[in-house]
Design brief:
Number of helices: 3
Order of helices and strands: HHH
Largest sheet: none
Strand content: under 5%
Structural class: mainly alpha
Length: 65
């Protein structure tokens, strides 16, 4: 359901590994399981992108297209 949330999680894991993915889940409260069950929400996506960028220390906007 949460296609964009899953995409963000995959980008974080691909570029930062499992540890980065776990940090993202901890910071945002969105696990990959939860992302599959709930629809995308603008505020949640915004929070996830910001957290992902902080974790990876780079802009991920291009990676999400």
């Amino acid at each position: 359901m949460g296609d964009m949330m899953l995409k963000i999680i995959k980008v974080v894991e691909r570029h930062g590994g499992l540890k980065a993915r776990m940090r993202l889940a901890t910071k945002t409260g969105v696990s990959s399981r939860k992302a599959r069950q709930v629809p995308d929400d603008h505020e949640t996506i915004k929070r996830m992108v910001k957290s992902a960028q902080e974790i990876l220390n780079k802009n991920i906007e291009d990676l999400l297209r």
